[in-house]
Each structure stands twice: as structure tokens, then as C-alpha cells.
Amino acid sequence: MRDDLRLEGVGRRYGLHGPWVLRGIDLTLAPGTLTRVEGANGTGKSTLLRLLAGIDAPTEGRITGRPRTAYVPERFPAALPFTATGYLTHLGAVHGLSRTAAARAADAWLERLGAAAYARTPMAELSKGSSQKVAVAQALLADPDLLVLDEAWTGLDTAARAELERAVAERTAAGAAVVFVDHDPRRLAGVPDATYAVTGGSLNHRTEQVTSVATGPHVVVEAEGSPDAEPPAQAAGLSTSVERTAPGTTRFTVPESHSDVLLRSLLGERPPWHVVSVHRPLPKDSSESSESSESFDSAESSDNAVRSLESESRR
Ligand SMILES: Nc1ncnc2c1ncn2[C@@H]1O[C@H](COP(=O)(O)OP(=O)(O)OP(=O)(O)O)[C@@H](O)[C@H]1O
């Protein structure tokens, strides 16, 4: 995404004389940013997301700078006459991929989301959770520059929820804008660049509460570059804090959902950075020292992740 997406004086109502659901909305989404939209039931969150996704037009006002956009709707029409792969390949082609590239991307996303076993199943026969995986896969297929997620985590299992959080981190790291609504306040807590609440037809910018930054799970990555190397911009952008701990050594504190993307980014640097340690900090009120490698309950899997990313980056 190169330019901002801008909403200026946007209003939406349904029917000629229906009440205004949204009015006077001014909003700018910049490349590489994550935006959360909140609000009580029926306030107009989905209406706003449909406008952002470009599948609905404003009744008044204008929207400019639309990039390549993908959308996971709140309700996905699951009973379509396709298999999961057939549907995704078709949509990939609509998004401009060749059929071969679309089929490859479809298989890759179904695999990542844990739905590879259902690739050849007719969509009408899929469980709610599996069809939600197809809904998510169709939006991620063609690496969109704007990704709009309306309750996209609902119905996914734990592993697929984490995978979608990782996909969000990958998209923003690649310079895309991502906007999401989710009923769970812990979803990507502390990560969004901006949070807006829809109330009374308007959009109110909310200042992120400091507590949500502290409560979201974070991972601390210690890494070494050459002594005079600055922390890479992409790694710094993913992190909530970046500290120089010694010449050439930097400590990145990153939301857990972003840790894989951070590691990949460090190892992908030329020359690559060396990852010294990966651990999760203990809560502030813990009586033990403030950080411990043992405290990271998946320290081993994290080491494995570093090793596999290192071999991937050498290929
Ligand atoms: N297609 C439509 N036709 C008529 N009215 C609609 C339509 N879509 C939404 N509305 C109305 O617009 C208002 C906002 O609905 P919207 O679904 O955008 O809210 P929401 O905040 O996403 O709600 P929820 O949290 O329940 O999903 C509601 O009063 C709803 O009834």
C-alpha cells in the first residue's frame, strides 16, 4: 500500500429516508498500520467495515486512495457450490493470480489454518469453524494491501486464531493496513496503532490504555547485528520497545503474535542478525527477577522456530 486510504465526511444510511447509521466520518488509514474498531451491538461497526472494504458505498462523503482490498465478512456465505480449494482458486484468479499461483496459495493457506484435510470437501458440508477458515483464507490469498476483518476470529480453533494473528502481523510488516472488529478485548491487545469507538453514528479515537499494552502477551528477543548496525526499521516497527543493551546487541519487546515475523525479519537482514535469546518476561508483580528464559513456556519451541527460520533464510 503506497497511499493513505481516506474517508472524508462519510455517512451511510439504509433506504432513502432511513436513519443515519454513520455520519461525518473522517478517517485515515496509513500503510503498515493496525486499527481496531469497537462499539456496542448495532452501532454501525459492520457498516463502517463494509465501507472500508469497498463492498458498500457511502450515502454521502467520499473515500479515496483505495488499495487492493480483501475482507472477511461477519457472515460468510458458506453454502457455495464449490469445494474449499475450488472456491479459493477461483477467488485467487479474481484477485489477479494465475490459476496455478491461486491453487498454490489456496493450499498453503488451508494448510496454515489447519484445514488442509478439508480442501476437497464441498463447502456446504464444512463445519462452521472450517468454513470460517475458508473465509479467512480467501482474504489472505493474494497478499492484500488493505485487510478488513469483521469478527474474523469467531469460530476458529486456538491454533487458527494464533495463525490469523500472525497473518495480521505479516501484512502490517509488509506495509498493508489492517482494520478489525472483535468482541474479545484481548484480541491483539496492545498491538493496534489506533483504536476507534463507533458511538452515536460518529467515530471517536480512543487513546490505548497503558494497561492493555502491559497485559497483552509479549516476547523479548535479544539479537546481535554488526556493532554499528542500527536496529532494522521493520523489526523496530513490529516492536513495542527497542533497547540497545550493548554495542551491536538490541533487545526487542514484541507482542507474541508478532514474534515469528520479527525473527524472520531479523534473520532476513543482509547481513542477517544473530538471535541470542527469545523469552517471555515475567509479570511485573512477580517476586522473581523481571525476566527468565525458563519462564517462557514454549522456550523450546521458540528455539526450534529460530532454527527453522535460520535454515529457511539460508535457502
Ligand atoms: N442492510 C441493511 N439494511 C438495513 N439496515 C441495516 C442494514 N445493515 C445494518 N443495518 C442497520 O444499521 C445499524 C448498524 O448495524 P451494523 O451491523 O453496522 O452494526 P454493528 O455495530 O456491526 O452491530 P453488531 O455488533 O451487532 O454486529 C443497525 O441498526 C442495523 O439494523
Question: Can you tag this structure with a few keywords?
Answer:
315 residues; alpha/beta; Rossmann fold; 2 domains; six-stranded mixed β-sheet; four-stranded antiparallel β-sheet; binds adenosine-5'-triphosphate
Fourth-level CATH superfamily of the largest domain: P-loop containing nucleotide triphosphate hydrolases
Largest sheet: 6 strands, mixed
Percent of sequence in beta strands: 25-35%
- Percent of residues in helices: 25-40%
General shape: globular
Bound ions, cofactors and other small molecules, one mention each:
adenosine-5'-triphosphate
Rounded to an integer in angstroms, the radius of gyration calculated over CA atoms is: 21 Å
- Distance between the first and last residues' Cα: 28 Å
CATH class descriptor of the largest domain:
Alpha Beta
DSSP strand count: 13
Q: List low-confidence stretches.
A: 209-214, 286-301
Count of DSSP H/I helices: 9
Describe the strand arrangement of the main beta sheet, using strand numbers: 5-6-7-3-8-9
Number of domains: 2
The string of secondary-structure elements, in order, is EEEHEEHHHEHEEEHEHEEHEH
Structural category is: alpha/beta
CATH fold type of the largest domain: Rossmann fold
What value does the average pLDDT take?
87
Report the CATH architecture of the largest domain.
3-Layer(aba) Sandwich
Oligomer: single chain
